[in-house]
Please model this.
Amino acid sequence: MDRDTDRFRLLARRTLLLGGMKLGLASALVGRMYYLQVVESDRFKTLADENRISMRLVAPSRGQILDRFGVPLAVNEQNFRVVVVAEQARDVERTLALLSNIVPISDAEMRRILREIQRRRAFVPVTVKENLTWEQVAQIEMNAPDLPGASIEVGEIRSYPFQSATAHLLGYVGAVSEKELTGDPVLALPGFRIGKNGVEKHHEKDLRGQAGASRLEVNAVGRVIRELDRDEGQAGRDVTLTVDIGLQQYTQDRLAGEQSAAAVVLDVHTGGIYALCSSPSFDPNLFASGIPTSIWKDLTSDPTAPLTNKVIAGHYAPGSTFKMVVALSALEAGIINSRTPVFCPGHMVLGGHRFHCWKKGGHGSVDVLGALRHSCDVYFYEVARRLGIDRIAETARRFGLGSRLDLEIPGERPGLVPDRAWKLANLGKSWTQGESLIAAIGQGYVLATPLQLAVMTARLVNGGFAVKPHVTRQIESGWTEQTVWPSIGVSQAYLELVKQGMYQVVNAPTGTAYRSRITEPGFEMGGKTGTSQVRRITMAERVTGVRKNEDLPWKERDHALFVGYAPMSAPRYACAVIVEHGGGGSAVAAPICRDLLIEAQKRDVARDAPPQVAQMPAGDGGAAPRPVGPPIANPGAARTEG
Model:
């Protein structure tokens, strides 16, 4: 009996212990479930959603670039592309072969597509071809049942409706390189493009905008099930330029008759640029979609450098266009006055060296007006001998020469205004007096860009104010144009005297540019011719006769330059023209400048009228549109004709 009682008690204790353990385990399980499902429910719901929901960036729409009248210069167009999803295609190569009957697919493109398909998951779309025409899109859609896995997607591509006329001004967009990745995640998006040159690059942050986001529901392997919601982000801001596209087109067309040339027209009071053209040019639309290798090689190997913006990056000896600066420097220093005569026999001898005037027989006795009118070299040789290079350099810098002008277009070069300190620091040699003579006629070490020459002219005719050039007029809101500029400290009397000389250059019968004068009343211009030598004329040539430009190889011909302003009564426009290896400035560059100044004035309607958008042309290089509204506006020796 006692044995049975002991056995029962032992079994009861074991049962109780086992039951307690089970109760403890059950309690722990219930507690853990409560903790996970109640206490931590929000966190695990978030984790589940993160596995279920994929966030993807949405590229923002790029801002437009407009001319001063609101005419679009850079826009976004629909970009139709065909993509292939491998898991839907079943036989990818067959689908691609059928697609090639509708859109051309090269062998290299075919290899690229197959490589991408192998690297990516089967459900990820791979781009086959971009920039499809509407006809190609229609054919693909019509044949969709026979093209398993192929579909059409719609994106945006940058387009430049005026093509080559705005290439050097606007620049272009291109794919993001590794060194351009700044941490902004939108830059890493496939196919995203940023400004590579011109206004597109300078205003990249404004034009780019801010990326949006798309919330997608995906399954366990990442396949998209549906889009939950979408934020388009913030589109880029529009940028309005000072440029008048009508004048811009006219300028580009006018330069097209020369092998290589550049021109710029700006407002002498605000500095706003109305036209900035370099020729030959290129089609920036090629870069937006990916330029073919063959075309890239042609552009980079062309001796006329179509990719170079010669207005801001072309370094040229300014030739006789520099003589106004020398005259003003001498007047300020008291070296000459309006009546100081210098006799020109056709040459000047200094230290056993003969420095020639462009006119072999000389100009006789001339004062400063006569020296400018005839572009007499000997007069300026003598002035430079008395004046010295340092005072010439100081005056030149006040007129915008020798340093960058900070235009909103990348690639601007500074030019060069030499002095004694510069030569000693850079060449380790002392300055010679003969080098001052050569510098006085805009040769030797002196270098300038067409933009600097236009600014020099603007500061000379606007009353001596340090106007700076710009192409940006407005960014969405808030005007950027400056109309009040500091004085460069030159006497008004001296400026008027030199302006009178520039008037005589064009309008006096003996002026070097008389044949290019503007005869229309109220449109008259003043200006200065320039010829820049690119080769040294030997003494043997002096004896036997200097070869004419037309008898020389193109690369050895002189550059032709001209700077001008109009109208004479109230100067508003300044213009600089360079024709590379064009010969004399009076015969080649002056007529171009004349035509540009006439066109600018013809387009000059009531300044305070509200701007109205003109009808935008197809951009095929045809006749310039007429917007309605206000246009706010190499070392060498003594040389040939100024």
Q: What stands out?
A: The domain at 309-602 is CATH 3.40.710.10 (Beta-lactamase). The chain has a mean pLDDT of 82. The CA atoms of residues 249 and 335 lie 45 Å apart.
